[in-house]
Predict the 3D structure of the following.
Amino acid sequence: MSQCIEIAVFEVAKSNLERLLEVSEILFAEINAEQKNILAHQISTKIDLSEGTANKNAEGQADGIEQEGSAENTPELTEVCWHLTWANAQAVQASKSRWPTYPSSAEIERLVGKKLYYGHFAAVAEK
């Protein structure tokens, strides 16, 4: 069975960022407690390349999707991305059904603001 990649992007108050990172690591350990379902993970925060380094469009705005009121335009908010490598799609399903039972899941839900993106992917080409 092939591995599955999960990408989840959240809007987070900068004041909650450090705790979110800590609780995320705890959650991943809880998910892997009985069986190694998450094989690897990376937690990233969005970087702002709009100052002088990004391409500008005809209106002088940086290329890309920018929504008014998004974390990029609000200094007290940031975006966090989970990039998880799961053993397979069945591991994702099992974890999803057990989400409410993980002790740290409720705190994760409280720490994140908007869920901006959530999706799972399987490889179609590899090198």
The longest helix spans residues 17-31. The chain has one domain: 4-47+72-122.
